[in-house]
Design brief:
- The chain is of the alpha+beta class.
- It is built from 8 helices and 4 strands; from the N terminus they run H-H-H-H-H-H-E-E-E-E-H-H.
- It is globular.
């Protein structure tokens, strides 16, 4: 989470995050004052990495605290819980699956397309557009028309639209709520202390 916040400038830990924070990330303002030019591809790269890191953190949270038997996916489990308690409302039943598949596309294919495999539970083809439109309050907009894996089709109507700032704010709120639930004793970690330390401790010598 800390690296995700670093790449997008979200230093307020759970407060509403905006394009102002993104524009001022990593001392960008000071660099521009000193005459350093920040090329647009840096913005794109930082948004890409931040989205991946936030979704990775969300999946890990789900696996550790919200795992449901038979699902084997932390993002699906934790977002289903978030929707059940009113933290978020998804208009389309496939929205959670599309967000789960986005993490897979970013982490394993390094891109914004998700093609089902022979082992996939669903056979939906997704192509994504990641946007930093500040006016939208929706996390995700599902396509009006199903994409058939034809890469020559570039229309938004066949794309899953991911709104970067609402997505970041949602994940921050999910983590904030998880902290409260853990302190209240309503959720428990699926791993014991020894297992956590063995799997996630990094030693720098």
């Amino acid at each position: 989470m800390e690296r995700a916040r670093y790449y997008c400038g979200n230093v307020r830990n759970g407060c509403e995050y905006s394009d102002v924070d993104f524009g001022a990330r990593q001392d960008s303002v000071e660099k521009m004052k000193q005459g350093q030019f920040i090329p647009p591809n840096v913005d794109v790269g930082d948004m890409f990495v931040a989205t991946l890191l936030y979704l990775n953190s969300l999946e890990q949270l789900g696996n550790l605290f919200y795992s449901l038997e038979g699902t084997n996916n932390g993002i699906s489990d934790v977002l289903a819980h978030a929707q059940n308690i009113g933290l978020v409302h998804f208009d389309d039943d496939n929205s959670i699956n599309a967000l789960k598949r986005l993490r897979h596309a970013l982490a394993h294919n390094y891109g914004l397309v998700s093609i089902p495999t022979n082992h996939s539970k669903d056979k939906i083809y997704y192509k994504y557009i990641l946007t930093n439109n500040q006016d939208s309050h929706k996390v995700i907009e599902m396509p009006k028309r199903e994409w058939n894996s034809d890469y020559s089709i570039k229309t938004k109507r066949s794309s899953v639209i991911i709104h970067f700032y609402p997505l970041v704010n949602l994940i921050e709120n999910v983590f904030k709520n998880a902290q409260k639930e853990y302190l209240n004793g309503t959720i428990l970690c699926a791993m014991n202390k020894d297992e956590l330390e063995t799997k996630y401790t990094i030693t720098i010598q």
